[in-house]
Amino acid sequence: MATNPEYKTINYKNLLLDPENPRLPKSMHNLDEKGIIDYMLLEAATLELMQAIGENDFFRGEQLLVVPVENNNYKVLEGNRRLISIKLLNEPELASVKKISIRQIYDEANFHPTEIPCLVFNTEDEIRKYLGFRHITGIKPWGLTEKSRYLYQLYENLFNGENIDNASTELAKKIGSRRDYVKRVLVSYELYRIVEDEGFYKIKDLDDTTFYVGYLVDSLSRSNIASFLDINISSNNPLENINKTNLKELIFWFFEKNDQNKTRVKGKSNDLNKLNGILGSTIACSAFREGKDLNRAFEFTEDIESMFFSNIQKSLTALEQADSLVHKINDFYSDLDEDLVQIRKLTSKIKQAKDEQLKKGIFGDAGDEF
What we know:
Layout: E1 6-11, E2 15-16, H1 33-43, H2 46-56, E3 64-68, E4 74-78, H3 80-90, H4 99-108, E5 115-120, H5 125-136, H6 144-159, H7 164-175, H8 179-197, H9 213-219, H10 223-228, H11 244-255, H12 269-279, H13 282-289, H14 294-299, H15 304-325, H16 336-368
Parallel strand pairs: 2-4, 3-5
Antiparallel strand pairs: 1-5, 3-4
């Protein structure tokens, strides 16, 4: 680090939680101490850390990084989860949730540390570079939403108004990452802010605690999805021509849940690859927008003739297998006759469509002359 922080041992009662900790969603910034503690207990695996400290004592090599504030207190910029664990090991009544587990850990703890090793810095800016390296490329990284929030804070504070390519290069150096990845994170967070500004399109249960910026970061690495949004990730102004209508549609695909509590597209690599293929095909894209599920729509990205042949062959194989088993069946299912009628109707429909296509091909040109 560029500065020489002062080492101090400070009583936990003089250490204050950071109400703007990047672990906290923006909507929960400026919570009071109890609110922060409750959120971190539910979302940040704090109980496990509390138990580890209670069993092994506080590891003095993991100093909290703090800055002085009024009344001889210090705000903790790095180590909020550790501070909460220590507070609860001394005052379990501070929590409003997980109270039974907290009491059990408190009662069984071998250690209840009160004096905490800290490194005291003069300003918050002196800590930022270290925090970026530790949490974005360190051994215990934040989630991608927290990463993007923190990176964007750095971008606004250190490079506001500068070329995003230059800013991405400098930020990548500071945190030990790749420039292209940093740029995708920054652009994705700008997309997130658009969605946030639109009230998350009133999608049920979607807010800043349930939104996954990682879906957008991964999407922008796929050319057809980026093109669907009219984003040129290689330009100096990637969002210059952003298609907000398509962005809204994409967010609905990712986050709106049906009656079975499922979304149309999961933010996983396999689904994103299929969606990328779909958006690269006019026919497949139309099918998906009309309601076909992801897998069915993806089939339309294949050559139509090949897909038709493949489906006919699969159906024929399945019927041949059923025919080989029929003599072994003692109890036929109740809807068999109805299904066989439906199969007959479909085969007749396919044959009729084929005959009409052939007839159109043979007589179409001659008919035009009359």
